[in-house]
Automatic annotation (TrEMBL):
Name used for this protein in its record: N-acetyl-gamma-glutamyl-phosphate reductase
UniProt catalytic activity: N-acetyl-L-glutamate 5-semialdehyde + phosphate + NADP(+) = N-acetyl-L-glutamyl 5-phosphate + NADPH + H(+)
Top EC class of this enzyme: oxidoreductase
A GO CC annotation given for this chain: cytoplasm
Pathway connected to this protein: Amino-acid biosynthesis; L-arginine biosynthesis; N(2)-acetyl-L-ornithine from L-glutamate: step 3/4
Sequence ranges assigned to domain Semialdehyde dehydrogenase NAD-binding in this UniProt record: 3-141
One GO BP: L-arginine biosynthetic process
Any GO MF annotation of the entry: NADP+ binding
Gene3D superfamilies, alphabetized: Dihydrodipicolinate Reductase, domain 2, NAD(P)-binding Rossmann-like Domain
Active site: 149
Family: Belongs to the NAGSA dehydrogenase family. Type 1 subfamily.
Organism (species): Endozoicomonas numazuensis
Gene: argC
Amino acid sequence: MIKAGIVGGTGYTGAELLRLLAVHPEVEVTVITSRKEAGKPVSELYPGLRGKMDIAYSQPDDDVLATCDLVFFATPNGIAMNSVPKLLEKGVKVVDLAADFRLSNAEDWKQWYGIDHACPEMLAEAVYGLPEMNREQIQSAQLVANPGCYPTAAQLGLLPLMEKGLVEGNIIIDAKSGVSGAGREAKVASLLCEVSESFKAYGVPGHRHLPEIRQGLGRMAVNTAGAFGGELVFVPHLVPMIRGIHATSYVSVKDHSIDLQALYENRFRDEPFVDVLPAGSHPETRSVKSCNQCRLSVHRPQGGDTVVILSVIDNLVKGAAGQAIQNMNIMCGLNETAGLEAPALMP
Ligand SMILES: NC(=O)C1=CN([C@@H]2O[C@H](COP(=O)(O)OP(=O)(O)OC[C@H]3O[C@@H](n4cnc5c(N)ncnc54)[C@H](OP(=O)(O)O)[C@@H]3O)[C@@H](O)[C@H]2O)C=CC1
Ligand SMILES: CC(=O)N[C@@H](CCC(=O)OP(=O)(O)O)C(=O)O
């Protein structure tokens, strides 16, 4: 059994890790931290875990975490980077659900996250954990940067076109998220009265997922003659639902000889967690609720140059905890789908 630790086990992604790992056949959660709830059994906060997860929260402590084989950081940005060097030195594998190791350039990190990076020398070692893009690198990684939720939905939708160098000009990503994307910490902006029966965009001048998506698209295009040099526009929106991300991406593909449906189906045929829907389909966020799937469809409206890709994920699962477990499975040589086979909740 793999001994796993979770730092930040009271938050939404930490709790989702617990829910999924409770039925993982090869993993035992041996450490789970919370500064505020240390000493309490996890089932006291999350009664759904009663009888499934018999463990109590403890204060974060790097020496205790070093007793694990792998540690998940489900903490705010800027926390994991203080502990990662010590854990890696002790041979512990790490999957960071936050953004500490997502950007390969420390200057970019400072610009978008507002603090100096605590271990910039580790950025080159970290592997970006989007298995559909770079599974082989993840297999040998000791440190994986789990992608952001919006970047996961957007990048999976654009991957087949970017890899083939088919995108000409700019890319527009119009994305919507449920409120759990903002985390469990109490904030006025997340109150029921603030978010229900309303709908708004935010972060239009520049959201921190923008550099992450741009970096990912650049890597996808690296083997094509026309690496992506266009403008990237990313506009996130908050929608009054709890879970789910819907990303609509608009790109120009002037080559009309491409069979887009076949391109997408062939690219993702062997991917256990990407489902290309039949031509003309519109994926719904509820079709991925609580499961590790990305469902997508590709359209060329009225046969024009503009291609529209619709992509949905559950932000807490394929957008966070599920993808983190997928990465752990790959890093530890386990079956990639272990613990992640459950279909979506219905309704
Ligand atoms: N919510 C989502 O949809 C997604 C979130 N993410 C990322 O995952 C990370 C966790 O997100 P989420 O679960 O939503 O966040 P929450 O705010 O819900 O939870 C944060 C957790 O971190 C702990 N924590 C906070 N500060 C510290 C600290 N200084 N040291 C140790 N533990 C700390 C908190 O517990 P306590 O204060 O008791 O210690 C809590 O358990 C974030 O970086 C987020 O950006 C990524 C993709 C999607
Ligand atoms: C709805 C909402 O507020 N979403 C968050 C993004 C989700 C998240 O946690 O960010 P990471 O994926 O980078 O970790 C936001 O826009 O800040």
